[in-house]
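User: Structure tokens for both sequences below?

Assistant:
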Amino acid sequence: MSVALGLLAVVVLTLATGYFVAQEFAYVSADRLTLSQQAAAGDRRAARAVRVMERLSFMLSGAQLGITVTTLVVGFIAKPALAELLAPALTALGLPAGMVGGVALAAGFVLATILQMVLGELAPKNLALARAEPLAKALAAATLGYLTVAGPVIRFFDAAATRLLRAVGIEPVEELHHGATLEELGHIIGESEEHGTLSGRQADVLERALAFADHSAEEVMVPRVDTVTVPASATVADLDRIIARHGHTHYPVVGDRVDDIVGVVSLDDLAAMPAPGTPVTELAREVLLVPFSVKLPALVSQLHARGQEVALVVDEHGGLAGLVTWEDVAEELVGEIADENDAPDEHAVRQGEGWELDADLRIDEVALETGVELPDEDEYETIGGLVLHRLGRFAVPGDVVTVELPPSLDPEEPAHATIEVLALRRHVPDRVRLEVTA
């Protein structure tokens, strides 16, 4: 083979290697959903690309076969061709005749490697990563043709590899699944926020949406100690005074005991202007009762099916645990919703090196507000509960607990957090200060 023909073959085979490398990385990196949507809109090239991705394992085997064959042939041709090309120049430089062949061969090997790495590997790989979907569509027709022609050979090697894997207890798969776990989606949201693709508000809503299904009525309800009830013996005049004092929208109507639930009255029930002496029991409506452990998606379904805005949460002993409304559920998705009846309140305020927080913030809400991942155990739900759990007694203002933060891959991340009790309410922490330390 002449030097010119050999060099031409090297260039062609190197480009072929680049084709297979681009093919491999394009289909692994391409967004399957994007291509599927384009295919559904009538894009034939996208439809062909989806067909390739449906047999991703087979395509990768074909790409590896092409890369292996072209690389081996390039190595077989390139080194002697380049050595023959370089030999006259090395002789002209005065290199001893006995060394010319070896040096020329070594130089040919280096040049062939550089050519193969740059033109056959790195450039097509970077192109495929940067333009995955367009390249996947552009290569689809040729890829399907190649897989058809080389199919028998690819299947032979695939079968051999499959038997080898099954011999060691591994079951091969034909298609890679592109679904992401909730943890992976959370990581994607965090990365997108860091890089500015998502705003902090957008990331917060998405993170809340991911966690929504894991939360229960107990976690979002207004607890019993904060629920304002109306006795069954009360009249509309009494209800007017209670509403004027507390400003809430919904009030459970209870009998002699708080756990004796009669129904619920709402501000809307006064729109018809009933007589002041009317018993509230005449206005009370049947209310949805749900167990404290019911998950929020199920709670939403029940509220929607009953056409109600409020549900009463019952504990494991059948007693009233609290009250939950559509607003409480919505706040789990979008954060605090303020209205004209709400007093201004800052649940989390950055102060110096730490944060001043409401003690009834859940551990996951603390993470959303501050970025600090506190230990989350079954014994407590809120940061105030964490303090009481660690103290083992009722808290007093000035109490400080130190907690070890979950391990991080970043050695510079803070390893500990201190929580100081600032104020109490009904013997439990009401406001706390959180700081992180190395």
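Moving on to the next sequence.
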Amino acid sequence: MVKDDKMSELGGIKFFGQMTASATHEIKNTLAIINESAGLLHDLSMMAQKGHPLSLGRINDISQRVTRQVAKTDLVIQRLNRFSHSVDQAKAIVDLEKTLMFVLDLVSRLVQMKEVTIEVIAPLSPLRVDTNLFYLENMIWRAIETACHAAEGEKKIIISFGPDTETPLVRFLMDAAKQELMDDLFGSKEDQALAAYLDISIEKNIDNKGFGLLWPKRI
């Protein structure tokens, strides 16, 4: 068990690094646009000093662009801040749908880069588990990432939830899947340690086009 814990920690560090790198990359992009806008305002100011008429329309456009980028940056920072505080919740009652939706927001840029479409079907009733929030977020990301790599054809993933609140289940279904990846689903030591730490079992669909994260039945 000590070995599994250590492996989970290593996977957690990698996960934290991935999320931080993605968020800071987004922030860097928005800052670049803001910096470019500042340069345009400077050019307009210099032209006005030389007697050229100011274009109020251009100034308004630049102002709106900066406002949008500031709002986008603020949203990224809010997500990153919330994510960083998840490490404080070693044991918590967690809503699976809300956690899934947060992780999808957190990794939206990474999913877009993989050119995959994700649809989420809400559960009939709330599904909650008593778990470590940070490692759960890690497991959800690994499931999303695995499904993205395995998806073929239209590259669409449908995420749904099992109907039994006593046995929580999150399903990931693809139109078509790469069989070599499905045959070695979550086969790495890090993934196996993470699933064991969270007491999650991996269930493949009968047609081998998807899988589920299954929690044990509550007593």
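User: Anything stand out in the second?

Assistant: Residues 23 and 76 are 6 Å apart (CA to CA).
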